Amino acid sequence: MSTNVRVQPDLKFVKELQSVGGESLKKCYQCATCSVVCPLSPADAPYPRKEMVWAQWGLKDRLLTDIDIWLCHNCGTCSDLCPRGAKPGDLLAALRNMAYRNLAKPTCIGKWMSSSNYLPLLLLIPAAIYMLIWILRAGVLKSFFPLKDGAVVYGHLFPGDFTIDPIFGAVFLFMVIAFASGIKNLLASFKGMPKTFVVGRGKEPGFLSCLIDTIKEEVAQHSRFRDCGTAPKDVQRFQGHLFLFYAFVALAIVTGVVATGHWGGEFFLKHVLKFDDPLTNLLAAAGHTPMSLANPVKVLANTGALAMVIGLIYLTKRRLSLDKAKSSSSWYDWYLLTVIWSICITGVGSEFLRLVNIPHLAYPTYNLHLISVFMLIAYLPWSKLGHLVYRVVGIAYARKIGRMPPPRH
Cβ contacts of residue 391 below 8 Å, gap of 6+? Predict the structure, then answer.
């Protein structure tokens, strides 16, 4: 005896999905080419064919708790070979965009990040903060473009101790708390996922061990990006992501060294505990800015900046070369690239203008740099770069339940 299953489509969800990049899903006629050609999709219940069906039916709950949207790396092979131009890769990207909007709290930021209409508001928040600081400091120093001993010194106009570090410390903490809420919601959505029996695996591994393996293989090596394909555009994408990732790693190390040197060495050890030994002085010196170009920390910073430029060129070139009939770029794609380009250009520009000592250009450029960094960090859990966290969590959980194979050792 057959069982009738009643499907209740969420038409509002379908329209919303189309608005964030899945507008071509109605073209799909279920030939399954996308699932067959995907280099990453597992043989058991492969994606993205089933996601195309669920999207056409408006099955919101099924889609937004689907772990496979995080396993997809959007290489574009499925969209390239789709005979109907349904762009299944864009659909999965659109689903991730919807997830970015709703996973982390407060969700109002997710709404602001979903449309270019809110860009002025997103920009206004950091712009107002740093413009206020600039005005107040200019009043104290009697100049909007002050020189210290005849030189441009950014810390003179924007003192790190009470304008840079406290603000970015608070922004970083806000980002971590938002990501924590997003991860909690993401893992809760996976609870109903069926487990896959893996021959010879034995006891199910713990989530932490799967997470560590994922970071070592997927993050450090970008292995799934590499496995997406060998076509020039796929190699370009892999290299772009890898350059950009290690650029951020290098710049994070530089930030950590400077912060530790300043607050740990200069402030805490020297001024609070009154230490005056060689090790303390060395640690304090590591946090002293501006640094000479020969300083190893500065060398690492400039190397990271160069890697960032290379990665951005690769990814922007690939994004511009996409065949719009097969794959398109969303607001989320261009927002992220624009913000990172802005960080890169204003960061390099700030260093150059400081060295050539042009205060009327240096300080505005540095101000724009602060605004750009704020926009990257503060809105990270709701931006496309959020996949750096959510995708890692998704892959780790997929490994735990057997949806993905164990790492290659």
Answer: 70
> What integer pLDDT is reported at residue 241 of this predicted model?
93
Minimal CA–CA distance to 225: which of 387, 32, 403, 52?
A: 387
Neighbours of 12 (CB within 10 A): 10
As a whole number of angstroms, the distance between CA 177 and CA 16 comes to: 27
Helix count (H) and strand count (E) of the chain? Answer: 19, 0
| Residue ranges for the chain with pLDDT beneath 70 | 1-8, 20-21, 197-201, 406-409
Q: Which stretch of DSSP H or E encloses residue 128?
A: helix 119-141
> Whole-angstrom Cα distance, residue 92 to residue 41?
13
Three-state DSSP class for 203?
Answer: coil
Structure tokens at 54: 């669920």
320, exposed or middle or buried, with CB in 10 Å at 0-12, 13-18, 19+?
exposed
pLDDT for the residue 151: 95
Q: How far is CA 375 from the centre of its chain?
A: 12
- 265-287 pLDDT per residue, tens: 888 888 888 888 888 888 888 88
C-alpha to C-alpha distance for 343 and 18, rounded to whole angstroms:
31
d(CA 394, CA 19): 24
What are the start-end ranges of the H helices in 266-384? 278-286, 296-321, 331-355, 359-378
Ramachandran bin of 203, using left for φ above 0, alpha for ψ from -120 to 50, beta for the remaining angles: beta
Predicted confidence at residue 75, as pLDDT, reads: 86
- The torsion region of residue 358 among left (phi > 0), alpha (psi -120 to 50) and beta comes to beta
In angstroms, the CA 76 to CA 162 distance is 46
Q: What is the pTM of this model?
A: 0.90
Domains along the sequence of the chain with CATH:
11-103 (1.10.1060.10), 115-400 (no CATH)
